[in-house]
């Protein structure tokens, strides 16, 4: 039966509210009437009702699903105490406990935590921190960053400057962005699971060596002006769901060490188990100097991110002229968000090693039929990430509708129909997601 209330809501929204990367007069959005577990209750444009599995985990953060009783309880308990206090001159138990937990679980010897409002803001903080660090160690002229094509680090101005300047989403602002140093995108790689249960990375070794030579040359040429290397480890997210070999990340660590650069690793999308390691940096056994986390940090309940640094970085900032990291959001270390994050991180630690490989195996199995479709260029998976890449741009409205009619919510972009589902999906949920994606692509792009 058509849902008049949901349809009316979408009509009220259209032309009033801007949605991400969408015009005011774009297609009517789907109205969410409820969410529970891994399912959304939607009203489609026109009023039809659908219960769908959220294959996007609300842009990769709702890893524990909706109305999770553990996260709900953490939120209610903190609400009964206090929901927010300023972090200037004050502290509170949820923030300290979360910092202790994050530094203990992070790759390498992380020692300090700075809380930010969102992933994009955490990247801003990491870039500012890198400039302060270089000034503190006597290299104040180091004001630029080395990164790779195909990256995405957020929509705020400094973060935009280290996103792909040509194929990214920010080409409308070329004159306003700082000009950084871009290496080519790392060559593609694929993680292969052998019949004996071993994991093996496959890539074009000659392409990796050529890429490494170019990165070394860029770093050597610009070393005196570079503050840090900034990169998404192993999986580039919104830049194309591109997977690259761990050796490329190792090379970036080596280049950073050789030239006195900080290695800033953006694990906002890849952290907390998503790629099949607790942090994607662990695929390369690499320890960053600065680590950004977000998204799954609160399980999608509230906006919170964190910047972690080594003790060396913290000591340099403390010895500097200003002695402080020069940033201070109003909602820094929001107690409610930190309380939920503690519950989310504890759940991740206790469940991801079982959940993520299971989801990954099922995605690999049930997305594979898409490789036989005529307009599919590639099918790839890594951890709880599944990607069907087309030979041309996706017809987003039609593929979205076709997937919804099959019981699956997806949000394609560019030439990709992909899924990063909640870890708590059952086997049947994952099969439904994969079959819904394959069926929608076959229907629309046949």
UniProtKB/TrEMBL annotation:
Coiled coil: none annotated. It is found in: Cytoplasm. Pyridoxal 5'-phosphate binds at residues 119-120, 266, 329-330. Its EC number is 2.6.1.62. The modification N6-(pyridoxal phosphate)lysine is found at residue 295. It comes from the Bacteria. One of its GO terms (biological process) is biotin biosynthetic process. CDD domains: OAT_like. Gene3D superfamilies: Aspartate Aminotransferase, domain 1, Type I PLP-dependent aspartate aminotransferase-like (Major domain). One of its GO terms (cellular component) is cytoplasm. Keywords: Aminotransferase, Biotin biosynthesis, Cytoplasm, Pyridoxal phosphate, S-adenosyl-L-methionine, Transferase. InterPro entries: Aminotrans_3 (IPR005814), Aminotrans_3_PPA_site (IPR049704), BioA (IPR005815), PyrdxlP-dep_Trfase (IPR015424), PyrdxlP-dep_Trfase_major (IPR015421), PyrdxlP-dep_Trfase_small (IPR015422). The record marks 21 as: Participates in the substrate recognition with KAPA and in a stacking interaction with the adenine ring of SAM. Substrate binds at residues 59, 152, 295, 328, 411. Homodimer. Catalyzes the transfer of the alpha-amino group from S-adenosyl-L-methionine (SAM) to 7-keto-8-aminopelargonic acid (KAPA) to form 7,8-diaminopelargonic acid (DAPA). It is the only aminotransferase known to utilize SAM as an amino donor. Belongs to the class-III pyridoxal-phosphate-dependent aminotransferase family. BioA subfamily. This is Adenosylmethionine-8-amino-7-oxononanoate aminotransferase. It comes from Terrabacter aerolatus.
């Amino acid at each position: 039966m058509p849902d008049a209330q949901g349809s009316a809501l979408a009509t009220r929204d259209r032309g009033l509210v801007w949605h991400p990367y969408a015009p005011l007069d774009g297609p009517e959005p789907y109205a969410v009437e409820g969410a529970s577990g891994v399912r959304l209750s939607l009203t489609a444009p026109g009023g039809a009702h659908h219960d769908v599995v959220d294959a996007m985990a609300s842009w990769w953060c709702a890893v524990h699903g909706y109305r999770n009783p553990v996260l709900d309880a953490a939120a209610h308990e903190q609400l009964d105490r206090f929901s927010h206090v300023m972090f200037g001159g004050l502290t509170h138990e949820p923030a300290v406990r979360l910092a202790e937990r994050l530094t203990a679980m992070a790759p390498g010897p992380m020692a300090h935590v700075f809380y930010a409002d969102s992933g994009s803001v955490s990247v801003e903080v990491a870039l500012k921190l890198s400039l302060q660090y270089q000034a503190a160690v006597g290299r104040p002229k180091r004001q630029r960053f080395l990164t790779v094509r195909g990256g995405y680090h957020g929509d705020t101005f400094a973060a935009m400057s280290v996103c792909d300047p040509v194929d990214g989403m920010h080409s409308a602002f070329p004159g306003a962005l700082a000009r950084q140093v871009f290496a080519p995108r790392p060559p593609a790689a694929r993680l292969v699971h052998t019949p004996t249960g071993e994991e093996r990375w496959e890539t074009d070794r000659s392409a990796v060596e050529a890429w490494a030579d170019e990165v070394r040359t860029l770093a050597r040429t610009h070393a005196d002006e570079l503050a840090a290397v900034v990169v998404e480890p192993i999986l580039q997210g919104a830049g194309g769901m591109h997977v690259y070999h761990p050796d490329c990340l190792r090379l970036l660590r080596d280049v950073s060490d050789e030239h006195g650069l900080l290695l800033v690793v953006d694990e906002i999308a890849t952290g907390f188990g998503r790629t099949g390691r607790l942090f994607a940096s662990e695929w390369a056994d690499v320890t960053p100097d600065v680590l950004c986390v977000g998204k799954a940090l609160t399980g999608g309940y509230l906006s919170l991110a964190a910047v972690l640094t080594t003790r060396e970085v913290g000591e340099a900032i403390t010895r500097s002229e200003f002695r402080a990291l020069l940033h201070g959001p109003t909602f820094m270390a929001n107690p409610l968000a930190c309380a939920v994050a503690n519950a989310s991180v504890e759940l991740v630690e206790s469940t991801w090693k079982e959940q993520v490989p299971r989801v990954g195996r099922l995605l690999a199995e049930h997305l594979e039929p898409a490789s036989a479709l005529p307009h599919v260029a590639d099918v790839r998976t890594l951890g709880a990430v599944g990607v069907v890449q087309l030979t041309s741009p996706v017809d987003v409205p039609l593929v979205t509708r076709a997937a919804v009619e099959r019981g699956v919510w997806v949000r394609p972009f560019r030439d990709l129909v992909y899924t990063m589902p909640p870890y708590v999906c059952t086997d049947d949920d994952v099969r439904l997601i994969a079959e819904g994606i394959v069926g929608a692509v076959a229907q629309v792009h046949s």
